[in-house]
Amino acid sequence: MQITWFGHSAFRLDFKGTAVLIDPFFTGNPAFVSDRAAAIRGVSHVLVTHGHGDHVGDTLDIARETGATVTTNYDLGMWLVSKGLEKFNPMNTGGTTDLGGFTVTLVRADHSSGDVVDGMPVYLGNPCGVVVKAPGEPTVYHMGDTDVFSDMGLIAELHAPKIAMVPIGDRFTMGAASAAFAVKRFFQLDAVIPCHYGSFPIIDQTADRFVAAMAGHATRVIVPEKGVAVSV
């Protein structure tokens, strides 16, 4: 499997001829420095963890341009359908769907999910993390935006992820110390990739504190260059 980070929490997974985007926040993302056309080329599925604009991002436009199926919670998905989304795979927390060659499970995240329309808040379902499993590939857990919570231990026991994308930016998600605590306390990962940092000035700008907090632990910390695929 190859994993490409596009800044903030946007990722692309490539495996066995399949290309999947997670939280494709490109337009308006100060950390997005990649070629958008290359980032979406061949994408068949888009996974969205929750309804905030820095995660929904370019989902609608990408779905129109590529014909990709969008997988997210029911409430957010139906809101996207009302805006023109044609291919929607509805889910909710705890559910698993087979997308042909891989499965997606939505799991709990401690955060919020919504948008503001005409000055009024709009509820867009529960925030989630996503677990992606494909035969012969390491199980991937994108935590979405979340705080640490003890049921991460259940996620680890049920799904045994080997690669995790972990938010570390603080203020809206875990900071470096709590993210490192979560990884060390609950998971037996081969590698962890920090995210949700280095985009907006209000959150942490580098992964340095997280890397330092993980020093000496068996889990490999990957801090990828934006737009450059890494093999896991």
Overall description:
- By secondary structure, this protein is an alpha/beta fold.
- It has a single domain (2-231), classed as Ribonuclease Z/Hydroxyacylglutathione hydrolase-like (Metallo-beta-lactamase, Chain A).
- It is 22% helix and 28% strand.
- It has seven helices and 16 strands.
- It has helices at residues 36-40, 53-56, 59-66, 74-82, 152-159, 176-186, 208-213, and strands at residues 2-5, 11-15, 18-22, 45-47, 69-73, 88-91, 96-98, 103-108, 114-117, 120-123, 128-133, 140-142, 163-167, 191-195, 220-221, 230-231.
- The strands form three sheets. Strands 6-5-4-3-2-1-16 form a seven-stranded mixed sheet, covered by helices on one side. The protein has a seven-stranded mixed sheet with strand order 7-8-11-12-13-14-15, covered by helices on one side. It has a two-stranded antiparallel ribbon with strand order 9-10.
- The longest helix has 11 residues, at 176-186.
- This is UPF0173 metal-dependent hydrolase GJ689_17245.
State the gist of this model.
The chain is an alpha/beta fold and 232 residues long.
Features:
232 residues, 16 strands, 7-stranded mixed beta sheet, Metallo-beta-lactamase, Chain A
> Which structural class best describes the helix and strand composition?
alpha/beta
Query: What fraction strand?
Result: 25-35%
Assign the CATH architecture. 4-Layer Sandwich
User: What helical percentage do the residues reach?
Assistant: 10-25%
How would you state the average pLDDT, rounded?
A: 98
Question: What topology emerges from the helices and strands here?
Answer:
Elements: E1 2-5, E2 11-15, E3 18-22, H1 36-40, E4 45-47, H2 53-56, H3 59-66, E5 69-73, H4 74-82, E6 88-91, E7 96-98, E8 103-108, E9 114-117, E10 120-123, E11 128-133, E12 140-142, H5 152-159, E13 163-167, H6 176-186, E14 191-195, H7 208-213, E15 220-221, E16 230-231
Parallel strand pairs: 3-4, 4-5, 5-6, 12-13, 13-14, 14-15
Antiparallel strand pairs: 1-2, 1-16, 2-3, 7-8, 8-11, 9-10, 11-12
Keywords: Hydrolase
GO molecular function: hydrolase activity
Family: Belongs to the UPF0173 family.
